[in-house]
Every structure is written in structure tokens, then in C-alpha cells.
């Protein structure tokens, strides 16, 4: 037996209990009794099946095995032990516990986020004949439809409800089952099943007798002479599996699909199996295509070598290093060298990316170096694919994982290095559901638990990370030259208002932007156009009275999507057809206002009818390989102009991109958030870095109504440090991170008055908590209603000491629990978000 920290002790004949973590939002684990039959098998990290409440069957994880019975209730027995070996280790459970405490949620919520769905159980309704029921002499009369169901159950001892649906009218099935239950003729119960299923391949091979003697095969061909389809199967098999050269090759056989794909008839293969010429067998195979290693070694340039040596030097005294390398400086090669060294030492490596689908260039480069020893883990994988990667880490197949934020939860047991690429990215933050964690910060804790090193890589560091480097908490390495001597792009500010006054603004594009796009097209170069809003236009409006269609469920205007001819809410998904006339005054003068990516795409096609244009935003990339297909089209040169949202700012690296255009920089800069300046600097710098990545200097056109803003000067001249110092002065003065710790509490309810009252009550309770703090609000949220729930927000600014934070979070949880005890507020939701933006 083992406890949470891996300490073992001999098994005894005494009654054992296990603390089980369950995927429920309750702040504790639950104790169950352990059946004597599994006492020698159960341990930390095993999955178990338990009953929770009266009806629910849940998958839980064993957190501790002990001999102390619970005092408050009688322990229910564990229903089943699901694994032959633990699928979670003690370090993972520690990590879950830290995450629950730091991000103010419950460990069950963390577990629910951590385990792939394929490792959780699902239930389905099963029906069987009641053991005491006598079909020959029923106690109650049965109608014809009931008899149909009972006769089916007599042939099949148990059936799913959906298997019974074809036997009777679907609308009547529920009534029939209810009637049979009342007559005690049947039992209905929940059958628990595993969601995960391995990928199985059907293979064929010669039956042994045809290889034992050489003449047997010749006789076979004589026997089937003239049966062209069967001959074709045999010849195709022998081409792929040369058994005459090596009979041992027959053991592995050949996938049946290979033969059918080669034009062989499936029925002919089945006939050969039926006649015992072939035999079939099944094997478990990987869901991932094999990858060939193409690059054996990495040669670093002088600048890269110096940066690598500086990182190693910093690791002598610091566990975390911030690698501040401008776009195109060659951070990938440094990552590869660091990864290789750690893997050679026998430890594991995790490389985090904000979105794998948007960094296909980096992923494919790493695959060429590490091949099948590298696992990939991201949200667009199926449940089964995720479980395959999880088990690959457990088995040691994958010692190097490249993944998005969810890959932090994989069952690592000996991490030596964690790399967080593009560490500034806001997409590392999980907003809903809980745990609302930031992957960069959680990665630092995971590395600390494993005593591993961490590299934070970026061209535009998050201010918190740069602050930690400046104050000596992190090591710091800077790379300020592009790889191979490539030059940084030239920036040009295009004044929207000036062009508008001179009547030079056409279809949202200034004269300078149009001229530079045409120049790039003439030179057969590619263009990226960035607009951080999808849809055709932000909204439509009546020219007569100013009416704007709004969502029925949220306090937002509906976005116009031209291709679907509909108005859509980007918060709840509500959509409706575009109205022909104003619903307020009846006017037919309905016009669009503003520009989204759809409209930009259309305008570009009008301005440059000869150009091949593609759009990349959430609407065009919903499919599993949507990103990949668009990027492959662009990378192959089949597209001249790619229009996109912030997706195109991340990691794209194409040789022929000579121009990047930013349609509306003001929308990024003048957003009501204390980080708006930092985010604007990061986004504009990142998207600009896509231009001129090789031997030609690129151009960046920034359209703005305020070209006099100081931030543009900082971006153009690459003055990150000066901009950082300016912003930090304001943050220090007005108490913003990194000088304080921010916590946001969102209060939600369907009734406005109840929401407001609960928010003010909570604020009053929070004020009572001892310690230095600033509490702002409650205020109606920027978007006051989403999905029919009203939102109020409370913001808390805390001093940064760990002790002060832990004290406040503990007391805050008590106050929220106290409010939930008030019957007026039982249905109110209080969502706590630590480090919210």
C-alpha cells in the first residue's frame, strides 16, 4: 500500500478505506470502504467506480489508502477497481491540490479538467426481464407491444433502450417501459462502460499449411485459376509480403485495408478466409501516423550558441529563465538543443504552445528531429487520441510532449525541462469552466514539483515575467538579432482620418495600404491582413432612427455574418436572419457599421480582383484540420492574401510574406483594460514579425486614427524596455499587477435584483476580512447579461505575500459559503477568477 506521498506499508487484514477524488464541485474527497478482494491491488492513482448519492455512478481517483473510518457517515463500498496499474501519480495529485487552492476551486473540478473524457466512465440505460417474472403466466395482462418487448428480451438477456426503439413506435417506448416496470415484468438499470477504445486493425495472412510445403501455393493458384478477383488478392498480398524470401514475414500479415485500397475485392478476401486460405486476426495499432526522423543534429549560429550558453549559465542559480528573442531570432533551434540534452539524461520534457494548430511550422520542424518519440496533445484530438497520448506518457513511449495548456495534466513522473513558448499569450489563460488557471504560471509550479528547469520564450514578454527577470527572480537572456542576418521589417503609419478628409480612403483601406498590397502582388509576394474581429460587420443599424439589433439573451449587439446572411451573438451563439426593415420605425434603410474579417475579405476582392484571397478566423477553422488546410494552401503559394484575426499573429513562418497590414490598430489599443497597451504592443509586434522573415526586408502598414500615440514609436523602434518602464510607473501608482494580486468575483443570476443584492452582500462580507486590500465594485459587468444571466463584478487587489493571499482566499470561500446558506441566494453563482486577465 502507498499513501499520497508514495510511502508504502504492508497490507493487513484490517478494514481499509480509500479517500476518493470525484469530479464534483465539492471541497473535499470522499471516503469509501475497500473490499478485502482488492486490498492488495488498490493504491494511489488507480481509477475506481463508486456510487455517489442514490443514483449516480462516478469515476474517481484514489488519493489515499488508510484504516480510519469516516465519522460523519457510513462508508459505501468501492464498486469496482478499473485499472491494473495507476493512471495518475502522487505528483499529479499534489499538482491538482495546489491548483485547487491557488485558483479557488475544488480538487474534483481540477480532476475533471485533468482526465481525458475517454478515461471517465459513461452510463447507458439497460433493460432486462425481471428475475421473478413468468412470461408464460404473467400476473397482469400484456398488450401486443409489451409482448414484442418481452419476446425480444427473452432472446437477448439485456438490451439498450435504443435497441428497443425499432421494435415499437419511438413515441410509445417510454410509456411501454413504464407500464412493464409497474407490472414488475422488467428491470431498468444503468450499465457503466469505458469510453476509451483502442484502435483495432484487422489483418490477414496465409494459413500455415500453405507455407509448410512450397507446392501448396502452386496448387492453390491452379485451383482458383480463372477467378481473377481471388488471384488479384493473392498476388497483391505476395507483393506486399514476400513470404518466399522470408516465411516469418507472414506472421505480421497485412492490413485488410491495404488490400482493399489497392483495388482488391472485400468479398474475395472474405471468400479466401472462408476457404481457410487466409486467416484473420486483430491487432491494436497507434492512431498516429509514423514520423520519419530527418534531422540528426542541430547546428547553432554564433548568436544562438551564446544564448544557449547563457541559459545554461543562468540555470546554475535560477530554475526559470526568460528567453527574450525578437521574432525570427531562432529560438526553436535553442529549444531543440535543450530538449535533446534533457532527453539524453533520461528525463521528460514538456513544450507548451498557445495553440498547436497555429504553430504547424514549429510542430513539423520538431517532428523531423524527434519523430515518434514526441507526443502531441491538444484540444482538437478525439477522446481516444488523447487517451493514447496519456498512456504513451505512462508507458514511456513519449518522453517529450508538445501541447496546449491541457498537457500540463499528463502523467509525467520525471520532468527535467518545461518550455513555455510565446509565454505572453493570453490564450494560456483558461476562463471557463474551473479551474480558471494560467498555463504559464501553472507550468512553473509543475516544474517546481518535479525540480525541473523552465524556459519562458517570447519576443514580447508579459510584464509580470519581465518584472521577475528584472528583479532577479528569473534568469534573463536576450536575442536581438534575426537568424541568418535577416532584417526587421519597416513600419509605416497610415492616418485613416487624414485619408478620409482627402477622400483617399477606399473600402476601409488607406492609399498607402492599397499601394503596398499592389506592390507585393506585382512582385508575386504574399500579404497578411490582420483585423481582430470576425464576421462581416460588428453590427447593423437603421439609418433613420439608429436601431441596432441585440441578442435576446445577452447585452450585446448581434454581429452581421454576410455569407450565412444572419446576425449572430458571439457570446451565446444565438442567431437570426437579417431583418428586411427596422423593427423600431419600419424603415428599410438598414446599413452595416464597422468591418469584420468577412467584410475585409470582400473589400480586398473588390480592390484586387486578380488576387487569390483566403480568410482565417473562428468561422473558417471550426473543423479538426481547418487551420492546417488554410495554412497549407497559403504555404504552398496558392493564396496571395490571407485575412485573419489574432490567429495569424502566432508562429506563422512563410518565406514569401513581404507585407503585413493592420487594418485598425486603435481597436486593440483603446480597449477598456489595464493591459490594453501591453496587449497592443504584443499583438502588433508579433504580427509584424511575420513579414520579411528571410533575405528580404518586409513592410508593416499600421492603420490608425491616432498616429501620434507614443506606443507606435515604441513599437516601430523596438523599445520594449522603455514602454515597459512607462507602463509600470502607472501600474505602481494605481495598484495593478505585478505590484498586487488581482481576484475577480463574478456574481450571476437570472434575476437582476437578486444578482445586485447578492453582489453587495458579498462585498460587505469581504470588507470584514482582515488584511491590506482594495475592493472595487460591485459594478454591472461590461457585458451585463450573457445567456439570460445578469453579471455583477467585484475586483479585489491584494498584497502579493503568499500568507496574505492564502488567508484572504480561505476567508473568501467561507463568506461565499455563508451567502449560499441564505435561501435568497442558493441559486446565485459566484465565480472566482484569480489573475483574471
UniProtKB/TrEMBL annotation:
GO terms for cellular component: primosome complex. CDD domains: DEXHc_priA, SF2_C_priA. Zn(2+) 1 binds at residues 542, 545, 582, 585. Initiates the restart of stalled replication forks, which reloads the replicative helicase on sites other than the origin of replication. Recognizes and binds to abandoned replication forks and remodels them to uncover a helicase loading site. Promotes assembly of the primosome at these replication forks. Belongs to the helicase family. PriA subfamily. NCBIfam families: priA. This is Replication restart protein PriA. It comes from Cyclobacterium marinum (strain ATCC 25205 / DSM 745 / LMG 13164 / NCIMB 1802) (Flectobacillus marinus). The lineage of its organism: Bacteria, Pseudomonadati, Bacteroidota, Cytophagia, Cytophagales.
